[in-house]
Amino acid sequence: MTTFRNPVIRGNALFLILASAGGLVTDIAGSFFGHGAEATLLAGSPGAGIGFIEAHGLALIIGIAAWRSAYARQWHLGLAAVHALFAGVNLLFWQYFVAIGLLGYATTILHVTLIVAHSIALAIPVHAPRHLVTDARN
User: Fold this and answer.
1) Residue closest to 115 by CA, chosen among 92, 81, 90
2) What are the tens digits of pLDDT across the range 43-81?
3) Whole-model pTM?
4) What is the pLDDT of residues 3-43, one digit of tens each?
5) Cβ pair 80, 119 in contact under 8 A
6) Could you tell me the pLDDT band of residue 137, with boundaries at 50, 70 and 90?
7) Do 63 and 15 contact (CB within 8 A), yes or no?
8) Which string of DSSP letters, residue by residue, matches the chain?
9) Which of 21, 9, 24 is nearest to 83 (CA)?
10) Would you tell me how many other CB atoms lie within 10 Å of the CB of residue 102?
C-alpha cells in the first residue's frame, strides 16, 4: 500500500462520518421539530426531509464502511464517485444553501478536493516507485 493511498481513504471516511452526522442532526431538527436551518425550507412539508435524511444517512454508512475496511484500490473509484455526486448536487441546488443561510463552500470544496485526491491515488501505478511504497513487513 502506498504512503498516500490509505490516508486518503481514512481522511475521506472521517470527513464523511463527521459531516453526515452533523447533517443528520440538522435534518432531524428541521424535519421533526421545526428547528434549525432546515426548518424554514421544510415548513409546511416536513416529509420533504426524507431525501436529506436518506442522503446523510447513506453518507454516514459509507464513511463507516470506508473507515473499517481493509485497503483496496477500488475504494478510490467508489469514493470519488460518491464525492462527484455530492459536489454535483451541492452545485445544482446551490440556492438551497443560500435560502437557509448555510454556506456550502467548505463541504463542496472538500468534495472536489477528495475527488482530486482519489484520482491521484488511482493514477499511482500499482507497482509504484519505492519512495511511494510502504512495505507492511518493515
Assistant:
1) 81
2) 878 788 899 999 999 999 999 999 998 888 899 999 999
3) 0.81
4) 677 899 999 999 999 999 999 999 999 999 989 888 888 88
5) yes
6) very low
7) yes
8) -BTTHHHHHHHHHHHHHHHHHHHHHHHHHHHHS--SHHHHHHTT-GGGGHHHHHHHHHHHHHHHHHHHSPP-THHHHHHHHHHHHHHHHHHHTHHHHHHHT---HHHHHHHHHHHHHHHHHHHS-TT--GGGB--TT-
9) 9
10) 15
Contacts for 62 with CB less than 8 Å, ≥ 6 apart: 16, 79, 82
Q: How far is CA 52 from CA 8, 23, 30, 113, 128, in A?
A: 26, 8, 10, 23, 40
- Indicate the residue type of 18: L
